[in-house]
């Protein structure tokens, strides 16, 4: 194949990226992890554009409850928010999200599998199943961190596509009736981090009118960081620059609506900077909001864990 006839990256990502415009206005949506942080900001942004939104999470932070209370009334012409308690590691509960959206909203056009965790000690590579800090069960055959950050978005996307193709109500997806999936990834998917290998690995894993895109934020100022002292040890609050969750939500909105954001596009979001991640030979994240200053300082903590007698061996 000659260079001139070789398909461009945009062709590889989406054969018809600019043909069918998509507006989120009035579209029903499902957002996992909407109880806080980036996904709360994104769900709120959807509500501001007349979308009905199903918030799913294990619980709601007070600020999320306020949003639910504000948009809870079933009033003609007004956005509506519903909370569905959901454990995203449970496939039956994931399926239930779509059943609720069908019942309450008549279906869904936008799905965001955004729930994630950041290698807490209770499901962490350096705290193997059965060790004192871990809640992963030795004979379960899986890790909660992987279930939440990899398996959940995969399964949710499968369920979304199935729902789009054969909805219980309304019209199926077509090129003129498009649908959208926006996956929340991280700049960690472009890097390697000794201290949090499961999280980093999970973020590397991520023609019918369905477009699946992703957003990769940097150091986002959300409870994922600020509510967890073990994560804040990585951050030098005097030097490191936060990415605001509103910036990430705006990038997610752009992925849904911008005709130039062909399927498979990933937007990297730093502090006041957003760029497309290249499919091949991407230079990686750089600039404000992409790094934490104290990452290397935490190597000693991991090495201390490894120095414990019998690390990794658990009596069955």
Automatic annotation (TrEMBL):
InterPro entries given in the database record: NAD(P)-bd_dom_sf (IPR036291), SDR_fam (IPR002347)
Highest taxon of the lineage: Eukaryota
Q: Which SUPFAM superfamilies match?
A: NAD(P)-binding Rossmann-fold domains
A single GO cellular-component term from the record reads: cytoplasm
Q: Where are the stretches annotated Disordered?
A: 1-21
Q: Which GO terms describe its molecular function?
A: oxidoreductase activity, acting on the CH-OH group of donors, NAD or NADP as acceptor
Going by the UniProt record, its keywords in alphabetical order are:
Oxidoreductase
Annotated family: Belongs to the short-chain dehydrogenases/reductases (SDR) family.
Classification via PANTHER family: 15-HYDROXYPROSTAGLANDIN DEHYDROGENASE [NAD(+)] (PTHR44229:SF4)
Q: What is this protein called?
A: NAD(P)-binding protein
Q: Which organism is it from?
A: Lepidopterella palustris CBS 459.81
